[in-house]
Amino acid sequence: MGVSCRAAKGAMPTTVGGGLFLLSYENLSVVVSLLSKKRGTVNVFVSFVDREKIMIHRYKLNGYNIVLDVYSGSVHVVDDVAYDLIGLYETCSKGEIVWQIQEKYPDVLKEEILECMEDIASLKEAGKLFSQDTYAGIADGLAGHTPVLKALCLHVAHTCDLSCSYCFASQGKYKGERALMSLEVGKRALDFLVENSGGRRNLEVDFFGGEPLCNWQVVKDLVAYARSIEKEANKNFRFTLTTNGMQVDDEVIAFANREMHNVVLSLDGRKEVHDRFRKDHAGRGSYDRIVPKFQKFVKARGGKDYYIRGTFTHYNTDFTEDILHMADLGFTQLSMEPVVCALEDPCALTEEDLPVLYGQYERLAREMLRREKEGRGFTFYHYMIDLGHGPCIYKRIAGCGSGTEYLAVTPWGELYPCHQFVGDPAYSMGNIWDGVQNKALQDKFGKCNAYSRPQCQDCWAKLYCSGGCAANAYHATGDIAGIYEYGCKLFKKRIECAIMVKVAEAEMREEDETI
Amino acid sequence: KRIKTIETRDLAKSAGCGECQTCGVANQPCEKK
Description:
The complex is a heterodimer.
Chain A: E1 12-17, E2 20-25, E3 28-34, E4 44-50, E5 56-61, E6 64-69, E7 75-78, H1 80-89, H2 94-104, H3 110-125, H4 136-143, E8 151-155, E9 157-158, E10 179-180, H5 183-195, E11 202-208, H6 216-233, E12 236-243, H7 250-259, E13 260-266, H8 271-277, H9 287-301, E14 305-312, H10 319-328, E15 333-338, H11 354-373, E16 379-380, H12 393-398, E17 406-409, E18 414-416, E19 430-431, E20 435-436, H13 439-446, H14 462-465, H15 470-477, H16 485-514
Parallel strand pairs in A: 8-11, 8-17, 11-12, 12-13, 13-14, 14-15, 15-16
Antiparallel strand pairs in A: 1-2, 2-3, 3-4, 5-6, 6-7, 9-10, 17-18, 18-19, 19-20
Chain B: E1 3-6, H1 11-14
């Protein structure tokens, strides 16, 4: 059977299987479908799809067939027939869909297929499937928007009582000299935040380092100062403390549990994994000293937020074991992040690690569901998506806010887009007395989102990551507007698992209600 | 019934108060719910 097509110059015909030929030209796809000759006739169907305006993502995981409608955020759980049908719906005619589905599923009646197609049409009509991308204007608006500050990462200590070789902050010194933030600099930073926060009421401050407990008195004094000004300024300060745990004692626990909205406690998991990198200056591992303190800290926290936060590297690609170890220690709010380091570093994750890491994320999801059923569940930061009340489209497009809504402050009051740029002179933005001086750099960060990155246009996850981390992109490509592809791959796997977990949890709730 | 739809926030309807927490965006809870 010969096929000849006349197409616009530049159209690229490709065979996509099943008698389908796809002609792509700019944003338009023309799908030419040829039915088999065995029915005695050759039928040709042509349909047009504006690919740029709609996007769905279909995947199978842990026994679920999941369809994500990217632009509405809708999630559908479907059977095998509907899964295949949705895949054909926008590129095939009704007649061909019926034929293809019946070829694959001989027991399915034509009426059933047509009924399923009606359901799909209803979902499309309701804007829950094959919905249109109408958000480009929002992205353009955000790019020209005057930034309003709402969060600071206060580097109260550029020094640390540990000497972790994988530390992105060069053992807390950020490639510079050891330094502690003075109370005067800290107070000015808080005033700067209030002055530049516009009408926003909730203001976030993370005490960070280095190790912030190396400057604990200043941390406490800054909290007291913030509490003294927040009422008059009509602001609500929410503090976070990130600590390695070495200097945690009863006084730290009592203060942090009273004043800190969240605490992030660094633990990498199993003792041998943790102690490989997280050593003191004498070369001794810290696991045995910090775990009992963290257990006491969390127990006294009384339900307030905390995260046990680990880093995994090439040396523990079986990181799910470390997360489960944290859970077995009694911790229930867990986070585990891939290491950020130079590609040539021995602890850097490799392409060969990827299939292992994918498997680990899937295993983690299954194990979480299993433990939830057993009444000993735990949460994992990256799987904590709220499908019903998650972030609005503005947040999903604006991204993390680095360089615009969120700035890092050094011990001497210099401003950087975020903690991962501190120490790089090219990314110094100004200071807390004169404000942001490098407006061009701030504008560049303001335009840094999924809609400004050509590589993100066809990515189904773009409204979950908003183009990803600018610092990771910079370190991987030399450009904050670049793409850290390795991070993208891990992110997409995490989101697939996160949605699956939410689907499974919804199913478990339904089962409970039925009982 | 071959398709079950999970309840999700309608992104088109969500088209900005800025009160949510900043450091992906997927797991940032909406302050207003």
